[in-house]
Amino acid sequence: MTLWTSEDAVDATGGTSAVAWQANGVSIDTRTLEAGDMFVALKDVRDGHDFVAQALANGAACALVSRIPDGVPADAPLLVVDDVLSGLEALGHAARARTKAKVIGVTGSVGKTSTKEMLRTALTGQGEVHAAEKSYNNHWGVPLTLARMPKNSDFAVIEIGMNHPGEISPLAKMARPHVAMITIVAPAHLEAFASVEDIAREKAAIFDGLERGGVAIINADLPTSDLLRSLAPHNCQTFGETERADWRLLEATSGDASTVCRASHAGDILLFKLGAPGRHFAMNGLACLAAAHAAGADLGRAAVALSDWAPPSGRGQRRFIHLDAAMPEQGIDLFDDAYNANPASVGAALDVLASATPPAAAGRRVAILGDMKELGETQDALHAGFATHPAMAEIQQVHCVGPLMRHLYEALPEAKQGLWAATSAELAGSPLALVRAGDVVMAKGSLSMKMALIVDAITNLGQSVADN
């Protein structure tokens, strides 16, 4: 299906094109570009203009540029604009203007991407669902997601993130959601914000883009819930465990690979299941059902479809690492939660680990934790504070990575202290010093800590089979 014609794109951006073309997709990376895509020459670590010739040689239908790159003829299929990012934003605005899809916007300190994927799953089968394949939630990710939206979409799920004040409002106004959800407000990016209340105000800026008559969905269990409610429009629904929640979680029973949930809404009981253990996943699942209902989807079908959801790699995915092909029961249970971290998500991950059953009677619960970044002046105390987290009572050993996690390491009882290293690469070099057969292990840290290196090292000890 044609996504953009040269005529449509010129009208949207005010740019120029010397030849006619048709694009079936939009790409910002020549490594993943497919034939027929529009290549967007964004400037990041490298200038995308340096890769235009390669993109066209690889089958790109056209390239969005601000100048004719060296080695590219003037009559090449180029959409020339004054500024590439502004051109991408214009395509995003145009795609949003032409769609008839119900748009759901998702933000929050934790759980944005998992919730976005839950919504994709819950809405599948009720129409064409569009959502980004990755965590594209920033100043270029949101317009890229919108620009990629097929014309025939029935639902669109747009993830909106931030690192600094003032980032969410313009993205929300671009996405113009019919339903705007805040998963949670927690200490994150405190280097850029004076308080958690200020973070809540920034998250509530997603309501700036809410369509007239749209629905706001907020968490009712937070210290900032009243503040969020005061900033939300009149049509606001809440989810949580408190009795006052419109969508109330009554029970969440976690097994080794799933969570069975019972909730209530408007006097009715809802049952749903998720393919991962964790009360935080149950809460996000309930929020998804609220959002799907507000977007006009069938609630019963959405609840049933949620059972097909499982977390992707790096976001709580569970794997069993077989260490001996002749003895399939010999292995390591691995929770890969390495993609990113802040205090709320680390606490949730520790709760999941504490409730997990090691695959062998002599197995241990092992946490491998990397630094949490952007926490400002409170960073040392926030790291050390996990030594007294209730889940730690059920965790036998903790390995720590990074100078900030040194504070946790030193606060732990000696019996729980595993290894400490400045970088993940140091621990990844000796995976057998971290875990042994029969253990259940969880790895988590901020993206810059590269905890995936440790996950890969443990995975490479054997043959990994993802649970489903």
From TrEMBL:
Signal peptide, first to last residue: none
Domain Mur ligase N-terminal catalytic: residue ranges: 24-69
Any one of the GO BP annotations: regulation of cell shape
SUPFAM superfamilies: MurD-like peptide ligases, catalytic domain, MurD-like peptide ligases, peptide-binding domain, MurE/MurF N-terminal domain
GO molecular function annotations of the record: ATP binding; UDP-N-acetylmuramoyl-tripeptide-D-alanyl-D-alanine ligase activity; UDP-N-acetylmuramoylalanyl-D-glutamyl-2,6-diaminopimelate-D-alanyl-D-alanine ligase activity
Residues in Mur ligase C-terminal domain copies: 330-446
Protein name from the UniProt record: UDP-N-acetylmuramoyl-tripeptide--D-alanyl-D-alanine ligase
